[in-house]
Each structure stands twice: as structure tokens, then as C-alpha cells.
Amino acid sequence: MKRKPRVGVFKFASCDGCQLSLLDLEDELVALVGAVDIAFFPEMSSNMRKGPYEIALVEGSITTHHDAGRIQQIRKQSKMLVAIGACSTAGGIQALRNWSDSRKWVNQVYAHPEYIQTLSMSTPISGHVPVDFELRGCPVSKYQLLELVSAALAGRKPNIPTYSVCVECKRAGTVCVAVAQEMACLGPATQAGCGAICPSFGRGCYGCFGPAESTNTAILADRMLAQGRDPDEVLRAFRSYNAWSFACRQATQGKGLV
Amino acid sequence: MSGPGDGGKKSRTIKVDYMARVEGEGALLIKLKAGQVRDVKLKIFEPPRLFEALLHGRHFSEAPDITSRICGICPVAYQMTSVHSIERALGISIHPMVRLLRRMLYAAEWIESHVLHIYMLHAPDFLGYRDFVELAKDYPKEATEALRLKKLGNRIMTVLGGREIHPVSVTVGGFHKTPSKADLQPLVEELKWALDTSCAKARFLGGFEFPDFEQDYEFVALSHPSEYPFNEGRLVSNKGLNIDSSEYEDHFVEQHVKHSHALHSVIRGRGSYQVGPLARFNLNYAKLPEIARQAAESCGLRVPCTNPFKSILARAVETVFAIDEALRAIQLYEPPPVPHATYQIRAATGQAITEAPRGINYNRYSIDDDGLILSVKIVPPTSQNQKRIEDDLRSYIPGIIEQPLEEITRRCEHAVRNYDPCISCATHFLKVEIES
């Protein structure tokens, strides 16, 4: 019998939500763990084995010296390295420190800042090692995660759409909240995958899947300003879970938004 | 793990560099010398994400979405505690049906989180497996039913909030959108199955062997005059505490210890305390519905219970309660006239405490006249239990010190998991090394 591909699940600075998505695949979990050899997944098992791994699923951003070294080791041991979720693909909400004095933030939160070792920036995995695939979302879609692992096992490209949330709204028949209700909505510039849930709940998309491929975030920011929105509100809209992604940074550049 | 198994005459160290089956990154360090416990450190090395600082300057309306990201396992507890704090600050009163839906959302999170911890993270310790997958091979029926129960918790969350992790419907004053009666009705049949199944599961778990270990705990939990607590009530203990959430910081203090990114919370003048399912069960037994009390009786869980290993039974009883509560809520629910209350924004400060699956979460928010956040304090449940976990280990190890190091390590990890520590919530941050 052919050896099952070894899978490792690794965590950096994050909320655990993306790897929890694996355990949330209640109907598929038994088949999934049967198809692969889960060699390292501390949240699920005490049976932790060393690499090499065929597939490494990496959650979280790099925020410490120790983690910057650890991701290098994981890359060396892994044939295919997949970054899962907004922290690992864009630095996460904790990347808001990248615009601040992070030492000041540590002083603000901890009584003994000298005990805390942290880098001044929160950066995505791709800022440190080559990444074979980035799965978006805060959190990722568990079905996209399943598709990704299935595709890797079959040796094919995963079928993960790169169009915007607008397509999902149209397909679901959700009335556009930006047009009909003039809500601030990042949907036109945000990658699909969530199922356009925010507009279906009567609120604008807040961009947790990050910028879609070939999107123009700067035009969207202009449009929001032209609607008379408070510049600070527009800035905050692009400064969230995927703030450190290139397209989110681009959205707010040169508009006098600080 | 290092050091010879010499029965405890020399010094021995037990190091568990990476605790498995807990949420987040932690380690345990235990130092033994001449048959005595010299040191116990539960280390939380989850990298700090500095939530309290990054919330500064954000609009209060963004707090529920941002704070849900503190924890992927209990996002509702974080987003809802922020909402309650801000509502208290601005004096917003909510519609009774909004309140009912919020209880249902908490019930959904308790079901999902408790079932995850009982079967996937904790039961393997009792049955001698390394994980749920091994357990599932020998107990296929229990495993299949556990997954179905967990899925139901997630399904309720998805109906109410759009997705199981980081739901999107919660807002200050209510919900962005409230469900219709017809949206909730399809859940009823599965909830009825779940109510029967969760009672049977409690009997199954009651058959586990529990180490003979009791401690004199100060249990701390919310207490409401008529309900088992989720998100409202006074904060009480079995040692005389009875306060409003606004008085929390007068009675509790957080200490920053070198070995952990999670602050240790203690009660002023008294020390460590326990929050979570066992604390809630002991302090609120009378408010459990009849069916949950029967489940407690059937699995041998009685008040007072001071054996932390029986927290798994308290979780099972609370699962029965949460399922019953979700059913009750669906039966009573009528959509409110508007999904959320309207209110005036002004500078104000508000505090709130709600019951996350693993214990109380305390928040304080101050906002300015424009609704921008001036300061935030978040005291998550694991931070509150962390010192108590170390105290438990200090008392527990002398009874097992003659065992081989490997067995001491396994049992200590089991004891840590009694608290369902969720380490990702290192808003300000677990590791087991045993050094001997």
C-alpha cells in the first residue's frame, strides 16, 4: 500500500479559528484523517511526529524572533506549504501594530514589558519563506480548506475562485447594500469565499477575505470618500484583518488619510 | 521530558514543550526535588497580539468583529462581552426577543465548544488514547454522535450569525438582522434528538474513572435570580463574593509573571480561584432545568463537587442545559419589531461580564463623544484560571510522585485539560515542562 501523505498543522500568532475549521468538518473529518497521515496537529493530537511533511498548513502571522526561525524550519521540512487565513496571508488584525510604535503598545498592555519579546511588526508567512498557496479568509472557509487538501492529494490545482464578493451576492440574489442602502461595503474589492454573508445579514462586507485578484481598492476608497464618508471611517475600513496586504495599503495611500 | 525515574530522591524535571489538545500554544514546567514539588509553571508562549492596544482609536461599533478574533473557539463570548460593556456604558436597553436570541447564540457556542472539549480534547485522557481519531476506532457510536452534536452547535451559530467562527450578525443594541420563526423551526427536530443523546452521553461519561482529588476552591461565576447564567447577573463565589460587574476591578487584580504571556488573575487578599463549568454548576445548580439536573444525577455529579477532573461531567450537564435552552428559546421566539435598538453616542465607560464556555470574561470599555475607543480592558477566562491550574498541579503531583516521569507528565497534562484552557486568548497569554 502506498504511504499516506504526511500532513502537519502549525500555528503562529492567531486565534486558532482556521485550524479549528478542520475540526469543524464534522461530516468529512473521519474520511479526511483516513486519507492522510496527520503527523503534527497539536490542537487535535498528542501524537506529534517530526517532518518531513508532504503538506504543511500554516496558521498565524510572524510576530516573534523565535517564530521567524520556526517558519524556516517548517519550510525546509515541507514539500507544499499552504498559508491558511488572514493572519498567515496578510499579517492579521495584529498587523495594526505595523503603523504604530509596538513597544508603546506592549507598555500599554503589560505591567512588565521587559518580559515580552515581540517584533515591531506582524508579517505574513510569505514575507519569510516561499509559500505554495494562500487560502484567504478570517476565518478560512472550511469547504475551501477541504477542496485545497483534496486537490493537493489528487495533484491538481485547487478550485478556489478569485473573483469578488459581488459575484456571490448576485448569485445568492442578495440586493446590493452599497447601491440600495448606501452602506459602506468592501465587497467589490474583496475576494469571494465566505458566501457573501454580511450583505445577506443587512450589513456591508468588511473585507475579511482580503482584496480580490486584480482589484482596484484605491477607486473603491475614492468612491467611499465621494459619498461623503468620514475619511477616518474609510481608513479604518481598509485597516482591519487584511490591513497589511498590498492592495489594502494601496487603497489608503496618497489620500491624506493617516 | 528529562531526568531519570529515580522515585524522587534526586531532582527531576518534567518538560512538556508543547501542550497538545489545548487551544493555542502552551507548555508546562514542573521541578521536583527530594520527592517535593519545587516549582510549577504553566507557560503561555502564544505570541501577544495586543488587542487592548489595537482597539484604541477604533469605533465602538467595530469592537464586536475585532474582539471575536481573540478566539476562534469562543468568538461569541468576546464579541458579546464587548457589546454588553458598550450597552452598559451608553445605557442601551434591548428588546426581550433580542435578549432571547443572544441566549440562543451563547447556547450554540457552549454546545460546540463543550462537545469539542469533552470528546476531542479531554476524553482521550480518560480512555488512554492520544487523540479523538484513536478513540473513534474503539468507540465509533460515541464518536459519530459527538460529531453530530458538535455540528448542531455550529449549525445554530450559522443560522443566527452566518458562520460558525466569527459570526457576523452581532451589533451594539441587537443584531444586524434577526431570523424569522421559519428560519429557526428546522433546528427543532435535531435539537430534540440532541437532548436525548446528550443525556445518554452524560451517563457514558459518568462511567469514566476519576482520580481521587479534591480541592478547597473559591468558585466564581455569574448568578442570575432565575436563569442559569450566560450573559447577565451578579458575580458571586462560594466564599462570600457578591458584586456587580462594575466592581470587578476592586476585587480582582492581574499579576504579570515572567513565565507567561497571560496575566495571572487573583482575588485580592485570597489568591487563585476557579471559573468555568464546575464553578457555574456548583453555584447555579438550582437554576438548571429538570432535565439537566437529571443528567447530573445520572452521571454522578452532585453539589458540591470539588474534584476538577469531574469538570468533564459539568460540561456534559451544561451541554444538556444549552440544548434545552436553545429549544426553549425557539419555542418562545417572535421576531422583534426592529433588529437593534437606536441610541445616542456620548463619552462613557461600561463594564460587563459574560460566561464564555470556559469561564467568565470581564471587559471594560471607555469611549469618547464620537464613539471612538479610549481604553479597553479584557480579562479572559484562561487568564483567570491559570494560577488555579498551577495550584492544582502543586497539590496533585505529591500523590503521583512515585510514578514514572512519563506517567506523571501524562497525568499533569490531563489535569491541565480539566480547565479547557484556551490559550489563543492571550490578549495580554500555556506551556508544561517538568524539570526534575
Please describe what this structure looks like.
The complex is a heterodimer of chains A (258) and B (436). Chain A is of the alpha/beta class and 258 residues long. Chain A has helices at residues 17-23, 29-35, 65-77, 86-90, 102-109, 142-154, 165-172, 177-180, 197-200, 217-226, 231-238, 246-252, and strands at 6-11, 37-40, 53-59, 78-84, 133-135. In chain A, strands 2-1-3-4-5 form a 5-stranded parallel β-sheet. In chain A, strand 3, helix 3 (65-77) and strand 4 (78-84) form a beta-alpha-beta unit. In chain A, helix 10 packs parallel to helix 12 (246-252). Chain A is globular, with a radius of gyration of 19 Å. Chain B is an alpha+beta fold. In chain B, strands 1, 2, 3 and 14 form a 4-stranded mixed β-sheet that branches. Chain B has a 3-stranded antiparallel β-sheet with strand order 6-7-8, covered by helices on one side. Chains A and B meet through helix 1, helix 2, helix 5 and helix 9 of A and helix 1, helix 4, helix 5 and helix 6 of B.
Q: What's the SSE blueprint?
A:
The complex is a heterodimer of chains A (258) and B (436).
Chain A: E1 6-11, H1 17-23, H2 29-35, E2 37-40, E3 53-59, H3 65-77, E4 78-84, H4 86-90, H5 102-109, E5 133-135, H6 142-154, H7 165-172, H8 177-180, H9 197-200, H10 217-226, H11 231-238, H12 246-252
Parallel strand pairs in A: 1-2, 1-3, 3-4, 4-5
Helix pairs in contact in A: 10-12
Chain B: E1 12-16, E2 26-33, E3 36-44, H1 51-54, H2 63-68, H3 75-90, H4 96-127, H5 132-138, H6 140-161, E4 170-171, E5 174-175, H7 181-184, H8 187-206, E6 220-223, E7 234-237, E8 242-243, H9 248-251, E9 252-255, E10 264-267, H10 277-284, H11 290-299, H12 311-332, E11 348-356, E12 359-367, E13 373-379, H13 381-396, H14 405-417, E14 431-435
Parallel strand pairs in B: 2-14
Antiparallel strand pairs in B: 1-2, 1-14, 2-3, 4-5, 6-7, 7-8, 9-10, 11-12, 12-13
Helix pairs in contact in B: 3-4, 4-5, 4-6, 4-12, 4-14, 5-6, 6-8, 8-11, 8-12, 11-12
